[in-house]
Each structure stands twice: as C-alpha cells, then as structure tokens.
Amino acid sequence: MSPGRSPTTRARATATAGPAHEPPARVARVARARLRVRAGVVGERRPAAGRPREPVLAPPGRPGAAAPPSGQLPVSARGPHVTRSVLHDDAVRVLSSWTAPDSGQEKARLEFLRHLEEHPADGLWRECAAGHITASAAVLDPSRSRVLLTLHAKFKAWFQLGGHCEPRDATLAGAALREATEESGIGGLRLVPGPVRLDRHAVRCEGRETWHLDVQYTVIAPDGAPHTVSDESEALGWFPVDELPEPTDDAVRRLVARARDAGYEPTG
C-alpha cells in the first residue's frame, strides 16, 4: 500500500468528475497502468461459526508520519450548493450497508460516514486537509496462503496495495481494484465483494500531516501470475500470510488475517 499516495472499475459506470476544485486524473504511469481492469468477481460466504473476533483496531500512524495536531476530524463549513461525486454516493452506500465485525470497526465505520457528511465535496480527495477516504486491497493467491505486498519506496516498509481515489473512479471497490492492478501489473485480478476492514492512520500527504481513512478489500490473483514493480515501490513480493516481512505494521497484519479468514467461493 502506498500510505502517502496511497492505502480497484472493470465493467462499471464511468465516474462523474468532481467539482472544479477536485484533483484532475493522474497521467497514466506506465504500460502496466493501462491494463484493463476486468470484471471478475468472487462470491462471498459467511465466516465459519465460532471464529473468534479480531482485536479492536487502534489507529497506528505510518512510519515517518506524525498525527495531526487534533485527534479529531474537524467539521468543515458547508455551503448551500455542494456537488457530490458518484464516488461519494457509493462510499456512503458501502459504509452504510457494511456490517462491522467488532466494536472498534463499528466506531471507524461511523467516523468514516461522519467525515463524508462533513466533507461532501472533497472528502475523498487528497486535497482535503482534514483527511480523505482511500481504498486498498490485500492481494491473495487462490489458496489464500500467500499475500502480495509492496515495499514502499518512501516509507521503506511493506504494505498492501492501494491508494488515493481518483475522479474517474465510480466505486470504492473499483478504486481498490484499479490501484491493485496498477501497482502489481497483474491482469485478471478478482475482487471479493464488500470491504473486509477499515483503517484510519496518520500520514504526511500533500506536504502536510493528515489522515487516511482506508476502506480495505480482498483481491484474488490468478495462480502463478507474474507481477511488475511500479514506480511507487522498491519491491513486490509474495509472503506466507502467517509470516509477513519486516518492517510492516499491525494494520497490515490485521488486514491480511481478516482477508485470509473471511472466505470466498470463486464464480465463473
């Protein structure tokens, strides 16, 4: 994952560009960024009965990032004429319908929704100084025994793949899948519907201390698919889900554990 850029549409509706002050779409990076993000979807199944609940998340900061002066997301002034994006509406829908696995995640869910309510025009974009919604994914192999992580070039630590939303994104799931495709160079990634975790962490972004409010998904890679290192990464590597490399952080460990245990049934 790229905490400072970044914490997925395939055959989805084209995103409606945000208001004039929103960021323009990034210039295409390299040929792998032009990989067609296909609409392969993986079906969900309920977690096995009796599985213990995961620990309540404490929002850790990323290496090199100090928390903003206030631990709260400030209320923004809201004018009478606010234009929301298609992505904003999708984010509200996703977070409103998602069932949190524990009290800590429920608190995060409500905080993310409050942020979107208080920042209807810019709450998904990196320019929002109060923090912004991001999207990431734990990329697993079909057996769910290995995870693909990126050694971030700036932070020198291993993270999941993901990052900032863009005006062309129509859905949070699509943003997570797009980022995973761009950063891995792997075509044919398949998304497990619905988030698996939420994570709020302090980062330095756009030259200031802020927050990433990361909506995290699971993505399944084709068996044996080759990967390509992106310009935001020093390395990519597959690791056993119970033997993650160092340095990493607890947020990555919790995401990988949750993605491994959530379960899925391939379709198509």
Automatic annotation (TrEMBL):
InterPro entries: NUDIX_hydrolase-like_dom_sf, NUDIX_hydrolase_dom. CDD domains: NUDIX_Hydrolase. Keywords: Hydrolase. Pfam families: NUDIX. Residues 130-261 form the Nudix hydrolase domain. This is NUDIX hydrolase. Residues 8-17 have a biased composition (Low complexity). GO terms for molecular function: hydrolase activity. The keyword Lyase does not apply. It comes from Actinomadura chibensis. Residues 1-25, 41-78 are annotated as: Disordered. Residues 43-54 have a biased composition (Basic and acidic residues).
